[in-house]
Write a structure and sequence with these properties.
The chain has two domains: 226 residues, Rossmann fold (3-Layer(aba) Sandwich), CATH 3.40.50; 83 residues, Orthogonal Bundle (Arc Repressor Mutant, subunit A). The chain contains ten helices and 18 strands. Helix 1 packs parallel to helix 4 and helix 4 crosses helix 5. The protein starts with a strand and ends with a helix.
């Protein structure tokens, strides 16, 4: 079972701290996480967006329930979109009944709950100002650069501990990028979307002059948060070890592989479709020419790329 607690808070006790768009961002994320791209169920999402539900006491209860170990929980995901506050003692999430910043939910308290949880995979996604303060250890001089994460914990934050988070009329820049990543922008060729690939997608989109997202993790292997439409089927991908007996072989081509040639061969045309698909997804490259068409017409060859080599090994070792 996968479960997610999705929180979006627009309104606060202090009216000037209102952040329009947080509810919409949270609702959009819950909608995407509920299902994989093919419609299969994914996360069981609990969405909290009303002031009555977003009180400090209720959110603490919901967080504790999210990370409480149950035998069939595979992934627990916590997302917060709203206002953040930071001081020398650490960071805080502002709840609907918060009167001052440090009366909200302490990021340090959240991290203690997460670190105590025995759930295998725990993911925290924070879209608020100073979100990078999550898991940062306060010391005698303020917030240190050290983090303490229990095994299986991953944190993706919109900004560093001393930065605000930007938003537009269309909502949060960070969450919109996360949504794009989950819809397929961060997928590998088999459609798997991991927390690391989401961070990479967001990181590249924001660039060096924008707010800087923060990625912290303590995991032994990557796991998928959502599956999108694969760029290539596993069945076709597995044929790669038939065409390349050794990962360092080149596959020889000739005009009979090209359908527009004078004497195309039926079997070679089938093989060439696979090879062209491998080329499309970056697994192979033609040798001494730019296009697969000319590699066939000029009787040249193609070879595995570095990524192709990796997938070749996975298939050869029966890991895919």
């Amino acid at each position: 079972m996968r479960k997610a607690l999705i929180i979006g808070i627009n309104e606060y006790f202090v009216s000037e701290n209102n952040l329009p768009g947080c509810v919409e961002d949270a609702s959009s994320l819950a909608s995407v996480l509920q299902n994989h791209a093919n419609g299969d169920p994914n996360f069981s999402c609990k969405l909290i967006t009303t002031s009555s539900e977003a009180s400090t006491s209720n959110l603490k209860v919901q967080i504790q329930q999210l990370f409480d170990k149950s035998k069939d929980t595979e992934i627990a995901l916590f997302y917060f979109s709203g206002h953040g506050f930071v001081e020398s003692t650490g960071g805080y999430f502002i709840c609907s009944d918060t009167k001052s910043g440090n009366e909200g939910i302490s990021m340090q308290w959240l991290q203690e709950i997460v670190n105590q949880s025995s759930i295998k995979n725990k993911v925290i996604i924070l879209d608020c100002c100073y979100a990078g303060a999550q898991a940062v250890v306060p010391d005698n001089y303020g917030l240190s650069a050290n983090s303490i994460l229990s095994s299986g914990t991953t944190i993706l934050s919109a900004s560093r501990q001393n930065e605000t988070s930007a938003a537009t009329k269309l909502g949060s820049i960070f969450t919109n990028l996360v949504l794009d990543a989950l819809k397929g922008g961060a997928a590998d060729i088999l459609g798997n979307i991991t927390p690391a690939s989401i961070y990479s997608y967001v990181d590249k989109a924001l660039g060096p002059w924008n707010q800087r997202p923060v990625f912290k993790t303590n995991i032994s292997r990557f796991f998928s948060l959502r599956s999108s439409q694969p760029s290539i089927s596993k069945e076709r991908l597995r044929n790669i070890i038939k065409y390349f007996k050794s990962p360092f072989d080149s596959f020889p081509l000739n005009p009979s592989f090209e359908p527009t040639s004078k004497n195309p061969d039926k079997n070679n045309l089938i093989i060439f479709k696979d090879l062209q698909k491998y080329r499309d997804v970056g697994l192979i490259t033609p040798v001494d020419t730019e296009h697969m068409y000319y590699a066939a017409i000029e009787s040249k060859s193609c070879r595995l790329t570095a990524m192709g080599l990796q997938y070749w090994k996975l298939i050869k070792e029966n890991k895919l």
